[in-house]
Amino acid sequence: MFMDESACNTYNYGDSVYWDARYINEASAGSFDWYQRYHALRPFVRKYIPTSSRVLMVGCGNAVMSEDMVKDGYENIMNVDISCVAIEMMRRKYENVPQLKYLQMDVRDMGFFLDDSFDSVIDKGLDLYLISFYLCILLVDTNHTINRIILQITYGDPTVRMPHINRPVYNWKIDLYIIPRPGFEKPPGSTSSPKSHVSPVPTTDKGMLPADYILEDPDSHFIYVCTKMPENPLLIDSPAFSLAEVELTDTDQFHNDLVFSVHRMEMRLEEVTTRLELTEARLGLVEARAATAEAMVEAIAEQVAVEPAPEEEEDEPFEDEEDPVEDEQEEPFEDEEDGLAYSGNSVSTISSVN
C-alpha cells in the first residue's frame, strides 16, 4: 500500500494513541508503505548508504522497506516508531531476523541513543516533524565525521524544506531528486520531455528549483540526500580562526545558526543531567530493595532459630485385624510301636509301665 499527500488530514499524527488505534484497526490490511516502496528508492539508497552502514529508520510503522533492505544486503537497521502496537507487531514478525531491531520511541525525544550512534538516517514520511531532522543530526554528526547521510523522502518541496536543512552551521551537501508518485502516468497529449529520476535536480544557490523547472507529476515526491562534508571553518575552535576571514552573506542566518548550535548543546547537557538523575534514582531503588530483601532473610532466620524442632512420632506396631496369626504349639504324638514321642524336631523316650 502507498500513501501520498492527498490522504493527509488533520488527525493528530503526533499522538501515539491515534497510531496505536490505527494499527489495531488496520491489522488485517497488512503492511503499509508511505510514498514509495524500496524498489523505487533502491538506486538512491544503494548510491549513498553502504550495506555495512549503521542505519536508523525513523517512523518505521509496519512498512516492509527495512525488510527489503536486509534482503538487499543491509546488515544493521534500527527501526523506531511512536506506536508500541506497531513496534510489537514488527518485533514478532522479525524476531528471527537479527539485522532488524525495533524500539518504541518518539522522534522528538531520542535521548536513548548516544551521539554518533548511526552512520545513516532514513526519514520516509515523517514530514510533520522537522525537529526530527535536527535530532538526527546529533545522532550522526556529533564528532563531525564526514560522509554521514540523512536521507529524507517527503512531499515537501524545496521552498518548505531547504530553509530548515540547508544551513551553513550543518555543513551538509544536499542533493535533490524528484520522483513521481507510484503508478503516475502522463496525461494524454503531454509534451513534457521524460526526465531521469536518478539524476540530481539542478538547484539555485539557496537550494531552490529553477524558475523554469516544471514538475512532470504535480504531486511528485522529493528526496533530499544530506551528506556530511569536511569540516566547516565556522565550526572549528581554533586560535587562528577569525570572523573577519569569513564572508557572510546572511548575518541574521549565521547568528540564528550559532544560537541553534548553542541551544542544542544545552539540550544535550540537560539530557545528560536527567539521565544521571534517573540512574541515581534507580540505584537508590535497587539499594532499597536489597535492604528489604536482607531484612526479610534475617527475620526468617530468627523465626527458624526460635521455633522448636517438631518431635518425631514413633511408629505403632502394625496389626492385621482381619487375619491374626497366632503361634500354635504342636502337641506331641506317641508311636505306640517303638515307644518314642515326637514333637517337632525333638524325640524323647516314653517310659512304659510293665
From TrEMBL:
Entry keyword set: Methyltransferase, Transferase
Presence of the UniProt keyword Metal-binding in the record: no
Pfam families the record matches: Methyltransf_11
Compositional bias ranges of the Acidic residues kind: 309-339
Domain Methyltransferase type: 56-122
Family as reported in the entry's similarity comment: Belongs to the methyltransferase superfamily.
Region (Disordered): 305-354
Keyword Zinc appears in the UniProt entry: no
A biological process term (GO) from this entry: methylation
Species this protein is from: Mikania micrantha
Compositional bias annotation for Polar residues: 343-354
Protein name (database record): Methyltransferase type 11 domain-containing protein
GO MF assignments: S-adenosylmethionine-dependent methyltransferase activity
